[in-house]
Amino acid sequence: MHYAVTDYVLDIVQNACEARASKVKVRFCETPAFIDVVVEDDGKGMSHEEQEAALDPFHSEAGKHPGRKVGLGLPFLKQATEQCGGVFELVSEPGKGARLHFSFDRSNIDCPPVGDVVSFILSALCLPGEQELCIERIRDDGHGSPSSYMLNKGELAEAVGGLEKVASLALLKSYIRSLEEG
Questions:
Q1: Beta strand pairing call for 98-105 and 147-152
Q2: Per the confidence metrics, is the pTM higher than 0.70?
Q3: Assuming Cys at both sites, which of 6, 34, 54, 57 could form a disulfide with 120, CB separation 3.0 to 4.6 Å?
Q4: 53: which DSSP letter?
């Protein structure tokens, strides 16, 4: 079950990596009025029929979830966005990847919390595979002082000496936290 927006985003990024994407881009924007996310990848893409199946909570791609026969990520996300007057747009084509855009109206009582952004980013960066992952984070407090930063998995891995060592991950976590606080 997803409890926060960051849970949904991590699930979508993981789906992109599993779709054999070599490039995954995430734009995560937060303002007092809305939370807006776009995830784009150059993975295998989906036909119209595959998109409809992906939005069916009682369907899952064969072999994707051993031990269960349902896939709930996209259906729960679509339901959550619609429930709070948000946006859900999935555009995909076989061989051309996918683009998922969703947003939540923060004034709606059903809007989920943002979640732990630092942990989401760290988890996304540590997903297996050699895909290029770029995360753009934008925050606007509504008082005229927007902030943003961009992270690239390859550059970060090179800077900290890989993403497999605990010391490197601790350093990276501190760095991401400083960006979030700054």
A1: unpaired
A2: yes
A3: 6
A4: H
